[in-house]
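Retro notes, structure queue

What went well: the backlog is down to a handful. What didn't: a couple of records were mislabeled last round, so from now on we paste the full input next to the output in the thread. Example, using Lumican from Podarcis muralis:
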Amino acid sequence: MHLNSLPFFLFLISGIFCQYDYDGYYAPQPDYGYAVSMFDHSTAVCAPECTCPISYPSAMYCDNLKLKSLPIIPPGIKYLYLRHNMIEGIEEKAFDNVTDLEWLILDHNHLENSKIKGRVFAKLKSLKKLHINNNNLTEAVGPLPNTLDDVQLTHNKISKINPNTFEGLVNLTVIHLQHNQLSEDTLSGVFKGLNALLYLDLSFNKITKLPLGLPPNLMMLYFDNNQISNIPDQYFQGFKDLQYLRLSHNKLTDSGIPGNAFNISTLVELDLSYNQLKSIPTVNEHLENYYLQVNQINKFPVSSFCKVVGALAYSRVRHLRLDANNLTRSDLPQEMYSCLRMAADITVE
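Corresponding output:
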């Protein structure tokens, strides 16, 4: 076993490539677009100010054009990119020619809820991805078509979600709502019935308590950079497939964490870094990545990782971060090495 710093942990799920820096910074979100520079212009019908690559004639790129309104969108376009413009609103008939649109990417504009007219998104009966990151939204957009599988509304000013916004979205697997102004009262119950939802990111909001009514099928659940101080008893036991759970940069204390709060057999990664913990919360032996850096931890009980130690009884932790706590290498008990026999990286100082 060697003691060194932890590299980035990368994972791939449902076609989404997610990066996470364990010091609390998020890598840029993926660009779902094709590299336009790789292709010549197509001879397909295309808005004159935009680009439709010959290899992907159903994709139209209108990025970085200082547009203040949507261009005329020709029939046959299925993937529409309108990033980095100055668009403030969307007229109700904007997509009447392309009701079979599948991807609509509107990141980095000036969109406001009051200027998005009527049921403009609900008309898109084939829409799968809707990205409106980095805009001026104050509430989640809707109504939405039930074909959606990926909704991203990050870096807005959203403080309100209508209880019916996500109702009936049976195909929705991914929701990004980080960097908004959401509270637990706004969130409770709004994800009810989303039985396909696997990924929910609520980081960088104003959540003080964990919201009620989250779908039990979630695999990835992120609450980083909120103001959560306690975990309700048995809160996470209702998630039967939860693998990645992040609660870094909150206000968690020992008294706010019930004894078995994180004893979840499916959990692969748990991030409790940048909180106010003085002891190590107990975890299931199947956990592989455990991040506790920048707390106030001053002791290392082996029982937090192993109830018993034996030939078949040991922790599967591979990466453990305890740096920036009140621990040194000399504080690590000898029996730790039998319990954490799978560990590749343990960072203490």
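Agreed that this is the format going forward. Reviewer comment attached to the example: The first strand starts at residue 9 and ends at 13.
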